Amino acid sequence: MATATVATTPEGIPVIILKEGSSRTYGKEALRANIAAVKAIEEALKSTYGPRGMDKMLVDSLGDITITNDGATILDKMDLQHPTGKLLVQIAKGQDEETADGTKTAVILAGELAKKAEDLLYKEIHPTIIVSGYKKAEEIALKTIQDIAQPVSINDTDVLRKVALTSLGSKAVAGAREYLADLVVKAVAQVAELRGDKWYVDLDNVQIVKKHGGSINDTQLVYGIVVDKEVVHPGMQKRIENAKIALLDASLEVEKPELDAEIRINDPTQMHKFLEEEENILKEKVDKIAATGANVVICQKGIDEVAQHYLAKKGILAVRRAKKSDLEKLARATGGRVISNIDELTSQDLGYAALVEERKVGEDKMVFVEGAKNPKSVSILIRGGLERVVDETERALRDALGTVADVIRDGRAVAGGGAVEIEIAKRLRKYAPQVGGKEQLAIEAYANAIEGLIMILAENAGLDPIDKLMQLRSLHENETNKWYGLNLFTGNPEDMWKLGVIEPALVKMNAIKAATEAVALVLRIDDIVAAGKKGGSEPGGKKEKEEKSSED
Fold first, then answer.
1. What is the pLDDT of residue 491?
2. Domain check: are 475 and 404 in the same one?
3. Residue 100 burial by Cβ neighbours in a 10 Å radius (0-12, 13-18, 19+)
């Protein structure tokens, strides 16, 4: 690493530019260091790519173990130190937040583009020319996806199910993917809303609850909400049909005054009246709730023991200290309103559910609110033999929910298995000579990088990557074979659309944009100035303080 903390004037007088302990890397050295970091992260991730990819075991500083092949999770848990590495983590997180899937595609493509750019740098092609060529290639790649993408509607349940199956196929839960895919499609279709002429899907309305125990096939979809609390009083009913639900953001307790008050009692009867009055206040609150016809109360705040007693006498099932997010989901699921003042509660504010029941799940009791008329909020209760399995199932379901939601929102899908990548590479090679000059080399390099994704898929499946790539190139010369990709289980090129390997067009497009932007950013950096770490020998640092104290 080159350091340049000191410069000299023409007269040879030294001038200090950077603080002591700072370092500077510049020119080709800086570029190579950044490209090496991108390549190293790609190497770490590429063995997890595709349905035949492997898993990673990540152990944090506290000894907690995470076993996953989810790209965003791996990068997040790796705790990278290199600044360029942190940039790739941000790209993965951005891809995950935007489309919920395709994080590994984005990072691995960035690594492949960086490799090809390094080869061009050795040929003395300037980084800005490479970036310009990459940007032109990105435009063609995105246009290719838009041209070949197939329209999909929310009623195409079969296609949506195949999208979910494709997403789940590369996860650790692949054995139960048929069952989970059905849950995912039903959940997303239930919470989807038509706004104008566009479908809108808010995945916050799909509540995911995890309880280890049982098997993955015990995972269930609840058309309503699962409240991870138990009924507050043993004397209350545990099952209520045709439930009328009061959702309260107010406590069923005697409110304490804000100011400190002192009450002097000189007669035991006054004390008795005082306690009786407290009971009456709580009884009035319960009577007001019962008068609306409510037979279930779900409260965000506390419920006093006296209030619990009166609620039980009235035959009302009650749950206290429910999460605010659960109350909001219950309001959407049951059609009720969250009320902050019990005096304002009316029968119109009550939600409806066919069944509210307390059930034992594993070692815990939970309240299930099911059978709402048209719930716009649903729950998935995940089960699994190990806590690690439950966590990985949650990650897999979130990705699958996201991909199905992407297809519904965007209305377009493409085939997987490398079909899109081969088609993009073919069109880029036809386009490159039209541009000419050194940019042509950058566009051809982009085509090779895109094909690198297929070679990694083939390698992970134990196939000959070059042989399979040539077969696919040959097939794609015929326009009718645009959906031909690599079946990693048989090792043969097949029509991926007919095979049911379908992905959202949005995921592919976003991954290409993210990877290209990341590499463009890295290639433009020719100078890295790193400040000295705190606690070094700089003024006021730990080392200096220790030296001073030893002198004293």
1. 84
2. no
3. buried
405 and 445, same domain (yes or no): no
Q: What's the rounded Cα separation, in Å, for the pair 239 and 497?
A: 47
**pLDDT tens profile 270-323:** 666 767 777 788 888 888 888 888 889 998 888 888 888 888 888 889 888 888
Burial 60-80 (b: 16+ CB within 10 A, else e): eeeeeebebbbbbbbbbbeeb
Amino acid (1-letter code) at residue 369: V
Q: Is 373 helix (H, G, I), strand (E, B) or coil?
A: coil
The pLDDT tens digits for 510-552 are: 999 989 998 998 888 776 666 666 654 444 444 444 444 444 4
The answer to whether 384 and 211 have CB atoms below 8 angstroms apart is no
Q: What residue numbers bound the domain in which 499 lies?
A: 21-151+416-531
Arithmetic mean of pLDDT, 7-32: 64
Instruction: Determine contact, residues 276/329, Cβ cutoff 8 Å.
Output: no
Question: What is the distance of C-alpha 98 from the center of its chain?
Answer: 8
Q: How far apart are CA 403 and CA 401, in angstroms?
A: 6
User: Which pTM does this prediction carry?
Assistant: 0.78
**Cβ proximity of 518 and 87 under 8 Å:** yes
Neighbouring-strand partners of residue 544: none
List, in sequence order, every beta strand (DSSP E) within 371-455.
378-384, 412-415
Q: Let me know whether 406 and 487 are in one domain.
A: no
- DSSP lists the bridge partners of residue 356 as 240, 369
Let me know if 59 is exposed, middle or buried by CB neighbors in 10 A (0-12, 13-18, 19+): exposed
Joined together, the tokens standing for residue 79 give 């705790």
For residue 209, give the CATH number of its domain. 3.30.260.10
Cα four-point dihedral sign 425, 428, 429, 430: positive
pLDDT tens for each residue of 349-402: 898 888 888 888 877 888 888 887 767 888 898 888 788 888 888 888 888 898
Q: Does a structural domain hold residue 205?
A: yes
Say what the alpha-carbon torsion angle 342, 347, 353, 355 is, to the nearest 10 degrees. Answer: 80
* 193 DSSP β-pair partners: 200
One domain, residues 243 and 367: yes
Do 446 and 368 share a domain, yes or no? no
249/535 Cα distance (integer angstroms): 49
Write the DSSP assignment of 104-157 as a string of letters: HHHHHHHHHHHHHHHHHHHTT--HHHHHHHHHHHHHHHHHHHHHHPEE--TT-H
Residue 334 lies in a domain: yes
| 3-class DSSP state of 539 | coil
Number of independent structural domains in the chain: 3
* CATH number of the domain enclosing 435: 1.10.560.10
| Three-state secondary-structure class, residue 246 | strand
